[in-house]
Amino acid sequence: MRTVCKLSVAVLALVVSSATAARAQSNNAFIQASADVQTPINVTGVQPLAFGNVFPGVIKLVDPSDLTNAGRFDVTGQASAPVTLSFTLPAALGSGPNSMPIDNYSAIRAQDAMQSVGPLLFAPGAANGATLSGTGALFVWVGARVTPTVNQAAGLYTGNITMTVVY
Amino acid sequence: MKLVSWLAVGAVLLTGAAPPPLRAQGRPLTVTGVRGVTFGTVFPGVPRVIPRTDPAGSGQLDIRGPNQSQVLLAFVLPLTMTGPAGAQMPLAFGSSDAGYSQSQAIGSQVGFDPRQPFTATLSNNGRGSVFVGATANPAPNQRAGAYTATITLTVTVLP
Known about the structure:
Strand content of chain B: 35-45%
Structural class of chain A: mainly beta
Helix content of chain B: 10-25%
Helix content of chain A: 10-25%
Radius of gyration of chain B: 22 Å
Distance between the termini of chain A: 81 Å
Shape of chain A: elongated
Number of helices of chain B: 2
Largest sheet of chain B: 5 strands, antiparallel
Number of helices of chain A: 1
Oligomer: heterodimer
């Protein structure tokens, strides 16, 4: 009787073994997808381009090297990453119904806030290449010229200068 | 003793009736993840495409099984990659982002849609490789850091 029991177990084992082998017709494996995302770009308008007092008929220029009056943008992002700067520049400043031409834009970019590390003069346009510093910083100054007419209406004239930065 | 004999016969019949193990038809089916899909450096707001033909960036899985057998390839694909603090980055697979190569050469693939099951034939020596590409779509304000996801391939030998 003991032999019968052993044989029964053997039969069961064989059947289970066969069924297991049949299920092994399918198999799987996985791989990883991986990416190293860099620091997002942040752009801040730090200082407006300020012409101060302007007199009718007297052209006034603000140079981008003027740390006090040139418009300034600060950029942060991934260290040493190449970026593209693009500018939207108004052709005139407005004051209610009145306008005053603005042109001759120029810009300086540097890797520090004093224009002492790697300053470069460039014409701001649709696509200006630049590289963030080793700490992921970039500073940009914008200068321009306004040309008030001799009968320019008095008032506060403003316009928006936009700089977009992408990797 | 007669009962013992009957049991022995029963055992033979039962094992004979069960489907033959795959080993009897050739080698067992194995699937091995060889290489992951590697996007490397990704900048926020800039999509990164890895073609399935990219020898360094594309993913690869190797298959071994019965010679010349037909197999069904089915992926489980992640929609996002997970990064620091649970941040998610969209991941997309196109209609030709997977490729099958009987010769296991990245340069001789037949493209297929990894979002759909695909039937392939293993080589004369029971081999094949699957290559995978994808597109990562980081948002402009995507949180910086390392992102990962798991791509699973299930292979089934067709009768």
